[in-house]
């Protein structure tokens, strides 16, 4: 179990106080959930990033708050794209025996045969809703596309589940397919079509001029 150290902080902090926390390399946050009162905390930014890279977005973290340990998951975090920094984190305390439903990333594996023949891999679904106890939630779900020909698709029902979890998506939902390439008209054909249209327009103009003279 990956451990992350945290410190309790006072509630109802001002914007200036939170800014000072961030400038000191810490991230303000809050923990709530199973058998836990809402508690404002702060964690080291570098250590949090390392932890998330290690356990993934749905991983279980052993959060130590002033010598008290609580098993948590990251419910959400706020990110400031202008500053390229995480500004706040919500940790949710969890019951390790209670199932949860979360989104799990789909990871495509292999190179489709159809793509080698000029087809285009189209992935309309990027994550799956999965139900499992926290310890059994997969970090990602691999989908092998190697055998896909042009026109082939993989649906949710085709995914082989290797683990103690349930996929909640509709079985007929398309995960990935290989579609034919989009054909653009050849330059010669486009030029020929433009010339034909120009001839037609000129012919119409001459007919109109002849009609006016009559």
Automatic annotation (TrEMBL):
It comes from Abyssicoccus albus. Residues 179-214 are annotated as: Disordered. Residues 101-181 form the Large ribosomal subunit protein bL25 beta domain. The lineage of its organism: Bacteria, Bacillati, Bacillota, Bacilli, Bacillales. One of its GO terms (cellular component) is cytosolic large ribosomal subunit. GO terms for molecular function: 5S rRNA binding; structural constituent of ribosome. Residues 4-91 form the Large ribosomal subunit protein bL25 L25 domain. The keyword RNA-binding applies. Part of the 50S ribosomal subunit; part of the 5S rRNA/L5/L18/L25 subcomplex. Contacts the 5S rRNA. Binds to the 5S rRNA independently of L5 and L18. This is Large ribosomal subunit protein bL25. Residues 184-214 have a biased composition (Acidic residues).
